[in-house]
Amino acid sequence: MSTKKASVVSRPLSPFMIGPYYKPQLTSMLSITHRLAGLILTLGSLFITGWLVALAAGPAWYGAYAGHMLAWYGQILLFAWSWCALYHLCNGMRHLVWDTGRGLDIKSAYTMGYAVIFVSTILTIAVWILAYAV
To answer: Do residues 85 and 47 lie in contact, with contact meaning Cβ atoms separated by under 8 Å?
Structure first.
């Protein structure tokens, strides 16, 4: 019978332990943001579905629901939902480019990552300007 003790290795349990063990990188932050955007899209879709149900239920229900959608907090929720939709779309297109084997080097990954943030923000602002103009 062996009485050897198992050696304990002091290392992080997961490479995704951002903080003291893992330095945050743009690609990892965009990945986490992509997942959060998907979650917000799901929850926001319930908000939009509620609007459609209120629309079908008649003017009284629609008026009550629209009051919340037009309030400052409803506008913030809709703005966040629209940014998440456009971010998710842009980031998905970045992944499609990666699926072709292009843009996998560090410089291209960072350039496309910053482009995703910039383009999704500009598109969101453009959509809201267009929505208020119409």
So the answer is: no
